[in-house]
Amino acid sequence: MKTFLVIWFGQCVSQIGTALTRFALLIWVYQQHHRAMDVALLGFFTFLPSLLASPVAGVWVDRMDRRKVMLWADAGAGLMTACLLALFANDQLQVWHLYAAQLLAGLSESFQSPAYAATTTLLVNKADYGRINGLRSLAHYGALVIAPFLAGFLVVWLGLGGILLLDLATFLVAVVTLLSVSLPRLDAAGVASVGSSPWQDLRAGLAYIQVRPGLIGLMLLHTATNFIVALTYYSTLPTLILARSGGNEVALAVVQATLGGAGVIGGVIVSLWGGPRRKIHGVLLGAGFSFLWGDLWFGLGRTLPHWVIGASVAVLVIPLIDSSNMAILQAKVAPAMQGRFFALFHMARQSLMPVGYLLAGLLADQWLEPAMAPTGALAPRLGWLVGVGPGAGIALMFVGAALLGSTVCGAAYLFPAVRNIEDELADHDVRAPSAPGGEALAQMS
Question: Under a CB-based contact definition with an 8 Å cutoff, are residues 253 and 22 in contact?
């Protein structure tokens, strides 16, 4: 636990720096042309590399020292920030530079995320999985609380260049904390070694998943829900707030900070509580609640108090969803497979997100926003629900996401492999050699 907390602290500091930069750059991008597509493309280029790099990344996470993988990933993200700083200092920063930088950031994340998740399994007891994943959520959402308010002051005080320089300093903190600890090796944990080639390792990882329908079901669930989230929160939420508030950056900062604050509270609760005994309920009921009530408040609300309520309701349960999901996966997947599994899981759940980002920008700019203008085609029929004018078309997207997302989460209960995953799929530390997927592990010896 001590080693985990050291790593967690470094990653937490790094996440604050990253969140500061992303908030400042988001405002900068929107100010260039005031288009939803420009903001949406930032997310598109962040998630695109995971579709191509995740399978390869997972193989190398299982073959290499996972601390070194995290170090190289942090170095790659730091290089991205350094390039942006150099361009800004020479007054040459353009929007397309940010898209290229997000490609590099997404590539680094493809390696860092599965390495971090797989490392956690070797550091703490199974009974603590829920709590430590709550701490991870706490770090993520804590950064979202701190970043908007800090960015508001620091942009005026230090400028964009100063924020980028501060981000570089936080990367150094993450690197120093990783260098200060030693991590247990897979062989020392009593698990199988990797296969003779990366291709064999990848095939073994795929075979491991194919005989476990519960894991496949969770993958498909997260693929669907992340696609819906990409249509709204990840891509068009900043545009919704700025459009309906007349470009009020303070309003966006308050909403972003509220999202983070609710996540912090949720993370603290889960860290102390550990989540429900039946983790699958935390995943399905939590996600359904977040979609139905959080998205509705954003879609139907037209003022800052409504958006604050929506942000609070939507994100308060996210740490419960994330920690419950990770606790299931860490308990069920063998440590020797976790690098590959988490990389493939990461790839699957994000596979439709780039499509969601592009579709969100097109729907907002080309169809729904014009249709919900005061003289638009849909304004007479749906104006009573979400209002008319700037931001109304995006608000309609949030209403649709609320209905679609909650329906998907409820429908997941109809599939026994998902509903009963904790009973039907044995934990990795009690699995018999003849259990499903044992042959996939045997290929690695």
Answer: no
> CA 378 to CA 385: how far, in whole Å?
11
Please check whether residue 358 lies inside any domain of the structure.
yes
Give the whole-angstrom CA distance, residue 100 versus residue 42. Answer: 9
CATH number at residue 236: 1.20.1250.20
Rounded distance between C-alpha atoms, residue 323 and residue 132, angstroms: 8
Total domains in the chain come to 1
Query: pTM for the complete prediction?
Result: 0.71
443 within domain boundaries: no
Give domain status of residue 421, yes or no. yes
In a domain, 383, yes or no: yes
Q: Of 47, 90, 397, which is closest to residue 244 (Cα–Cα)?
A: 397
Sequence length of the chain is 445
3-state SS class at 91: coil
Domain that includes residue 92, residue range: 2-183+194-428
Instruction: Report H helices in 126-158.
Output: 129-157
pLDDT (tens digit, 9 = 90+) per residue, 298-345? 999 999 999 999 999 999 999 899 889 989 998 898 888 888 888 788
**3-state secondary structure string across 83-112:** HHHHHHHCCCCCHHHHHHHHHHHHHHHHHH
- Closest among 116, 318, 338, 345 to 214, alpha carbons compared: 345
Q: 133-158: per-residue pLDDT in tens?
A: 777 777 776 676 676 667 666 766 77
